[in-house]
Amino acid sequence: MFQLASPKMNVSAVFFDSFTTLEFANDLPNSVIKYSLDGSEINQDSKIYNESLKIVESSEIKAIMYHPDYLESDEVQFEVVKIAKKSAIKSLVLNPQPSEKYSGLGASGLMDLKKGSAQFGGDKQWLGYQTDSVLATVQLEKNSEVSKVVLSALTNQSNWIFAPGKIEVFNAGKLIGIETYSNSKIEASNSATFLTVPITKGVYKSLDVVIYPLSEIPEWHQGKGTTPWLFIDELIIQ
C-alpha cells in the first residue's frame, strides 16, 4: 500500500495577540484528517478536521491523514504562540555575534515577532551559531511582568542544525529559570522548535538569557562528535 503524504496546514500567523486561523488542505476524496491542539498523540478518538479553526491560545498542533485504501501519513507537527500586542523587549544585545554566513538581521531579528521559514538558506530571520553558548542581554519595557521566556529555534538535523540542550535565565546575576531539553539529541523531523523556560514571576528591568547548544552532534548522526549548528529567530518574553 502507498503511504499518504502528511497533511498540509496553513496558519494566518505563527505569533498572534488575539487569535490565529488554522486550515488543512484536503483534496483527496474519502480521506480524513485527525488533529490535536494540545500536543497529544493522534489516535482513534482524536478530533476530525471539518472546517477552519480559530485558535486563541498558544498551541502545539499535530495531525495525521487517513484513507481506507492507503497507509496513514506521517504525523505533521507545528506550534503557534500567543504574544502581547507589543514585544516586552526594549533592546537586545548578543554575545557572541552570529556566524557571518548566517548573520540574518542581527539582534533586531530576535525581537521583531517575525518567524523564519523552514528554508533557512537566505532567510534573514535566522541567526546561525557554532559555539558553546550564546548570551542575550535583554532590556525590558517599563513595568514588564514576566513569567516565562520562549525561544524559537530550528531543527533541521540533515543540515546539522539541532535545537539547544539547555537555557538559563538570570536577573542581576541570580538564576530565575532553567530548562534542559533532552529531546534535542533525538532524531526528529525538520520543524520550528519553541522552547519555553518558566521563570520566577515578577517585574524585571533586564534579563540575561543564556542558550547552550548541544556540545556535540549525537552518535546516531553522520556528523557525530562534531559541533552542531544552532539557529534561532525569535526571543519572546511573556
Number of strands: 15
Distance between the termini: 47 Å
SSE string, helices as H and strands as E: EEEEEEEEEEEEEEE
CATH topology of the largest domain: Jelly Rolls
Assembly state (oligomeric): single chain
Count of spatially separate domains? 2
Question: Which residue ranges are poorly predicted, with pLDDT under 50 across at least 5 consecutive positions?
Answer: none
Taking all residues together, what is the mean pLDDT?
93
Structural class: mainly beta
The biggest beta sheet is recorded as:
7 strands, antiparallel
Number of helices: 0
Radius of gyration: 19 Å
The CATH architecture of the largest domain can be named as Sandwich
Q: What top-tier CATH class of the largest domain fits best?
A: Mainly Beta
Write down the overall geometry: globular
> What is the percent of helical residues?
under 10%
Q: What proportion of the residues form beta strands (DSSP E)? A: over 45%
